Amino acid sequence: MRLLNFTFSLLLVILIFASCKKDKLTMPDTKADTLLKDTVEAFSAPLKMDTITDDPSDPNPEPKKTEKLNYDASVWSELTKADGFALDIRYATTNNFTKKRIYDCGKCFMRPEAAEKLKTIQAELNEKFGYSIKIFDCYRPGPYQQRLWDIVPNPDYVTPPHKGSMHSKGLAIDLTIVDKDGNELDMGTSFDFFGPEAHQGYNHSDAVKRHRWILKSTMEKHGFGSIRTEWWHYSYKGKSYPLDKWVWDCK
User: Fold this and answer.
1) Which residues are catalytic?
2) What is the CA radius of gyration of the chain?
3) What single string gives the DSSP state of each residue in 101-149?
4) Is there a domain that residue 167 lies in?
5) Is the pLDDT of residue 15 over 50?
6) Taking the model in full, what pTM does it have?
7) Other residues' Cβ atoms within 10 Å of the Cβ of residue 64
8) For residue 150, what is the domain's CATH number?
9) Residue 45 included in any domain
10) In total, how many domains does the chain have?
11) 140 close to 121: Cβ distance less than 8 angstroms
């Protein structure tokens, strides 16, 4: 009888232990499961990559990459902001004396020899005075010279296309000087002003005379010649080229 009771008690204990072990194995560990779930979700979620965007509030945003223009570098050189120049190609806008857009887009190309001299002039002005060059016009393709003539067919203001302009040879440039803050120096008149005040010998203030002298003496030192009626116009005299009709791509 005692043996039977002991056997029954032992069997009961075994059943209770087995039941408790089963429950422990099947009972979820809430903290462990939650931690595991969070970890799995964290690694399975898509990564958020930082992207570079142009912030309109940034006064100096990173330049966007653009497709390089396809042109013969042995024949033409492009002058850009990366070279230290300020560009204000007026005939690519309506802000010019015709009030019409002549160029499809604003680019500054020059013959290689003239371009190299302009880079030297830019460096010299910056070193001596803290100044930079601002460019209004450079090479003017034959088709654009024709557009200009069609709008203003007056040889007093525009060179007839058949005769050709030094701009269409890639040797002429219209420019001024700006200070370290990008402000144009006082030259007595604006660009493309038609009147005696724009002439090189006009009796302006001492400040204007000095500004014009800095530009003229530096340009002439490096092989550029001026004309009597336009303080902003200079042509490179170091080499001759024919008129050209090549038109740059707008990209």
Assistant:
1) 230
2) 38
3) --SSS---EE-HHHHHHHHHHHHHHHHHHS-EEEEEE----HHHHHHHH
4) yes
5) no
6) 0.72
7) 7
8) 3.30.1380.10
9) no
10) 1
11) no
